[in-house]
Amino acid sequence: MLGIETSCDETSVAVVQDGKKTLANVVASQMDIHERFGGVVPEVASRHHVESVTIVIEQALREAGVSIEDIDAIAVTKGPGLVGALLIGVAAAKTLSFAHDIPLVGVHHIAGHIYANRLIDEFVFPNLTLVVSGGHTELILMNQHGQYELLGETRDDAAGEAYDKVARALDLPYPGGPQIDRLAASGNDHIDFPRSWLEPDSYDFSFSGLKSSVINYLHNAKQRGEEVRKEDVAASFQASVVDVLVTKTIRAAKAYNVEQLLVAGGVAANKGLRQRITMAAEEAGVSLLIPPLELCTDNAAMIASAGYIAYQQGVRDAMDLNAHPGLDLLSY
Ligand code: KG4
Ligand code: ZN
C-alpha cells in the first residue's frame, strides 16, 4: 500500500505492507518555512507540496526497495485539512492510480491518526481513542474496523491549538506544542489554572477558558512588573490540559467497558500526557497503545494503515475523488 498525506504542512509518502509493516515513511516537513509566519500559510503550504510530492514518492519507493508495479493500492488523505494542500496529494494519487492502473482509496486524516496505532499492535474491540491533534480533540469509540462513534469533542479550541496559542503568548516559536512540552519538564505546576470539566456526564472538552486564563495571568504579571517563569506557566498549563484529557478518557473507558485505549494525533507526542495516561491506564487495568513520536504527528504510514482496512472492506475511489476540507469522520 502506498500512502500519501498532504493535508497540512508535511508532504509524506509511505509504503506499508499488510497494513502493519512500515517499509518506508518519508516526511518532508515545511515547519521551518512556516515558523517565521507563526503558523501555516495555506498558499505557501500548497506550493511546497507541489514541489516536493514527486520527489517524496520516489524516495519512499526507493527506501522501501519496491517499484510502483509492486504497489497493490494507493491510499490518500482526502480530508479534513487545507483544501489546496489536500488537492496536491489527491492529484498525485489519482495520477499514479490512472497511469499504473492501481486501485485508489481516499482516507480520513483522523482515521489515519487512529490507525497509526495499528502499526504498533493489533486492535482489540471495543476500543477507545483519545484524538488530540492541531485541529481535533475527540473521544472515539470503535466496535469494529472502520466504524467510529463520537463520545465527545471540543466545543472550542482543539488541544494542539490551545498549546500553539499559549506558546505564542509566551513568545515561543511555532509549532508551540513541543516547546511547551520541553519547558514544562523543568517547570513547577504551582499556578492554579482552571480545569474545564463541563457537565458532570459530558465527554466534551473546552480549552478556550484555560487559554484566556493563561493570557490574563501573563498580562497581570506584566502590568505588575513581575517576572514570569515560562517553565512554570508551561508546566501549570500542561497539568490542566493533561488532567482533563486523562480523567475524561479513563471515565469513558470504564463506562464503555473498552478492551483497549489508544492515543492519536500530534499532541500524543506530549511527554506529560504519555506519562499520565500510561499510569492511569495501568491503574484502570486497560491496555494502552500510543504511537512512537514519529507516528504521532502527520505522516503517510498512518494513512496507508487506515487505507489498507478500507481497501479490504472494498472501498475504491474513482478519478472524481476530490479534497474535502471539512470531511466528517462519522459519515465518511
Ligand atoms: O496531528 P498533527 O501533526 O496535525 C494535525 O492534524 O493537526 O498535530 C499537530 C499539533 C500541533 O498543534 C502541535 O503543537 C501539537 O500537535 N504537538 C504537541 C507536541 N508535539 C506536537 N503538543 C504538545 N506536546 C507535544 N510534544
Ligand atoms: Zn494530523
Strand order of the largest sheet: 3-2-1-4-5
User: What's the CATH architecture name of the largest domain?
Assistant: 2-Layer Sandwich
Order of helices and strands: EEEHHEHEHEEEHHHHEHEHH
What number of structural domains do the residues give?
2
Mean pLDDT over the full residue set = 97
Radius of gyration: 20 Å
Which cofactors or ions or other ligands sit in this model?
5'-O-[(R)-(carboxyoxy)(hydroxy)phosphoryl]adenosine, zinc ion
Instruction: Provide the CATH topology of the largest domain.
Output: Nucleotidyltransferase, domain 5
Question: Tell me, what's the shape?
Answer: globular
Helix fraction? Answer: 40-55%
Query: What's the β-strand tally?
Result: 10
Largest sheet: 5 strands, mixed
What is the assigned CATH homologous superfamily of the largest domain?
ATPase, nucleotide binding domain
- The proportion of strand residues reads 15-25%
Number of helices: 11
State the name of the first-level CATH class of the largest domain. Answer: Alpha Beta
List low-confidence stretches: none
Distance between the termini: 20 Å
Look at the helices and sheets and give the structural class. Answer: alpha/beta
